[in-house]
Amino acid sequence: QLPPFDHQPHPYNGPSADEVFAKRKTFLGPSVFHYYKKPLNIVEGKMQYLYDDSGRRYLDAFAGIVTVSCGHCHPEILNAITEQSKLLQHATTIYLHHTIGDFAEALAAKMPGNLKVVYFVNSGSEANELAMMMARLYTGNLGMISLRNAYHGGSSSTLGLTALNSWKYPIPEGHVHHVMNPDPYHGAFGTDAASYANDVQDHIDYGTSGKVAGFIAESIQGVGGAVELAPGYLKLVYDIIHKAGGVCIADEVQTGFGRTGSHYWGFETQGVIPDIVTMAKGIGNGLPLGAVVTTPEIASVMAQKIQFNTFGGNPVCSAGGLAVLRVLDKEKRQAHCADVGSYLLERLRFLMERHDIIGNVRGRGLMVGLELVTDRTNKTPAKAETAVVFEKLRGYTRTILFYACEALFSKITSKQS
Ligand code: PMP
To answer: Helix or strand or coil: residue 386?
Structure first.
């Protein structure tokens, strides 16, 4: 039984979408590149809500792009950025600066094992570029291994690691081996982690000299559709990679900072400790910020080269990042992700029992996927039918998403008031 649904949609008496867009065109100007033909014109963000130029309010269940985990313009983060802006807006890691130092210290304290040295960059792509550079420099090998269906960035080298053709364009991609992703739903071996790990060994045996630079994976493939890797997979593969002289990189751009609910870092769900961890998105709650954390041993090899960039470790972003770490702990966001995420999964599974069009419900914490199919046995993806299906599901999904999101934010909002 669905819980009673007494939520009244926010009354909207504004102009139609076309009227709004006519106005927007002049506002946006033709020189701005946009992903959508008719993008929303967002003018304000307050915690879980976004407002467009017509005053319409949206519940931002996408959290920016899986980024604004603490809410838009969160007061404590806003205050930290504002105060730092008044003092110093630009510095790099070629200076000593206490905000950068404090942030690095706080971040390193969140890491397990010997992951103690922090490098600051500006995005997830840059973090993965740097991680790949570290792997190659440290091992002296070239070959990188990444999973099919992975997204690791949009820069030339990281597109090489990415294995989703909709994102690719012709670039020279050398020395990257894309192995089978251990996808329990679509993968040929179901949840049999050992069989997928054999594929990694095969690639090393037949596609390389026997030595590799590194392996990179997300514990839950985000852009690939909330695909959680088969349990035990990373442990087996980390062993294989280490034996082949490589290092293991965890891409925590989406899975980090408690988003999986059960753990602070996604790799912990697989019981491994990587040699290099990359992060972005949630680290700055929307600020352009990324980081790579590694061991002193790898860092000492990196130290043989010049490594800093103009904006990495920017004090305003660092002050924001430091506040994010505080807010995540203080407001117990990880526990909250676990709480709301399991509720969301439960309700989506409830839907799945009633609708054949839902082939799979999966994920962890607030990285949850629902896959639509036209045929459950063959798992044929629903494409053209999707719009119709969404229309059919609308009442239910809206109810469930509404409950999930309200539950997610109600505690936070009440704390703030
Ligand atoms: N890694 C993962 C797992 C991502 O999801 C993304 C962004 N979607 C990136 C790397 C690249 O991050 P950015 O867009 O900040 O370059």
So the answer is: helix
Residues with Cβ within 8 Å of residue 7, at least 6 apart in sequence: 399, 402, 406
In this structure, the residue with its CA closest to atom 1 of ligand 1 is 152
Give per-residue pLDDT as tens, 154-211.
999 999 999 998 888 888 888 999 999 999 999 999 999 999 999 999 999 999 999 9
H helices of 35-89, in order, are 63-66, 75-87
SS3 96: coil
> What ipTM describes this predicted complex?
0.99
Question: Distance between CA atoms of 352 and 360, rounded to whole angstroms?
Answer: 8
Terminal alpha carbon distance of the chain: 33
Distance CA 127, CA 293 (A): 9
Phi/psi at 46 (nearest 5 deg)?
-135, 110
Q: How confident is the model at residue 10 (pLDDT cuts 50, 70, 90)?
A: very low
pLDDT tens profile 101-159: 999 999 999 999 999 999 999 999 999 999 999 999 999 999 999 999 999 999 999 99
Query: What is the Cα–Cα distance from 410 to 399, expressed in whole angstroms?
Result: 16
Q: Is the CB of 237 under 6 A from ligand 1?
A: no
Task: Please work out whether the CB of residue 146 comes within 6 Å of at least one atom of ligand 1.
Answer: no
pLDDT tens sequence across 379-417: 988 775 555 555 555 545 544 554 444 444 444 443 332
Q: Is the beta carbon of 331 within 6 A of some atom in ligand 1?
A: no
Does residue 256 have its Cβ closer than 6 Å to ligand 1? no
The predicted model scores a pTM of: 0.89
Domains of the chain: 1-69 (no CATH), 75-330 (3.40.640.10)
Are 67 and 281 a contacting pair, CB within 8 Å? yes
Provide the 10 A C-beta neighbour count for residue 106. Answer: 17
Q: Go through the chain and tell me how many residues it has.
A: 417
Whole-angstrom distance, CA of residue 410 vs CA of residue 202:
50
Average pLDDT value for residue range 22-47? 69
192: its two tokens: 């049999």
pLDDT value of position 370: 86
45 lines ligand 1 (CB under 6 A): no
In contact, 392 and 386? CB cutoff 8 Å: no
**How many whole angstroms separate alpha carbon 195 and alpha carbon 190?**
9
Distance CA 132, CA 404 (A): 38
The atom of ligand 1 lying closest to the CA of 150 is: 3
